[in-house]
Amino acid sequence: RKEVEQDPGPFNVPEGATVAFNCTYSNSASQSFFWYRQDCRKEPKLLMSVYSSGNEDGRFTAQLNRASQYISLLIRDSKLSDSATYLCVVTNNAGNMLTFGGGTRLMVKP
Amino acid sequence: EAGVAQSPRYKIIEKRQSVAFWCNPISGHATLYWYQQILGQGPKLLIQFQNNGVVDDSQLPKDRFSAERLKGVDSTLKIQPAKLEDSAVYLCASSPRTGDIEYFGPGTRLTVT
Fold this sequence. Notes:
The structure holds two protein chains of two kinds.
Chain A: E1 4-6, E2 11-14, E3 19-25, E4 33-38, E5 45-50, E6 55-57, E7 60-65, E8 70-75, E9 84-91, E10 98-100, E11 104-109
Parallel strand pairs in A: 2-11
Antiparallel strand pairs in A: 1-3, 3-8, 4-5, 4-9, 6-7, 7-8, 9-10, 9-11
Chain B: E1 5-7, E2 10-13, E3 19-24, E4 31-37, E5 44-50, E6 53-56, E7 65-68, E8 75-79, E9 88-95, E10 103-104, E11 108-112
Parallel strand pairs in B: 2-11
Antiparallel strand pairs in B: 1-3, 3-8, 4-5, 4-9, 5-6, 7-8, 9-10, 9-11
């Protein structure tokens, strides 16, 4: 089993739609969780951290379920500019090493 | 604030040749990472430095890859000799401390023919 697993997609959605991605991780002692965004042929950039209580940043909501070992990302009112690959990132027990998932590709269509 | 700098941006070499990549992290960032990202996959950590010491290099193919971070600032990653399967984007990232948010450079796209 991979340490961090994501559905590669692509998820094709119309503008204005709500879309959700899940990511599962194998290390139950993982400390921290993040979502990064990567545009085509660009470097990954932090989208948001994921806190135990869940967190929201505008149209983006991230949630953590430690019992089931998954994190989720919800995007409301999708924009064309949201088209990108979304990478799930999990740290190890000590919180000093990050492991990236393979990414989920989102394509928002007009 | 200047971001992570990498050079070259693109490199094409033949198999069995050698290549080196350079990275200059964000000023003051103690932790530096080298990742390999193959097309369609997420970044895979090759090596992590804390200042000029190695924190983890368990996924670095040490028979052909080497990296150093002299003086705890700039870093170089070398491949010698290159194989076809080394074709990938090599990303350098830095963070203020281990486990903190990582800031990535633009990457070096390597093609091995």
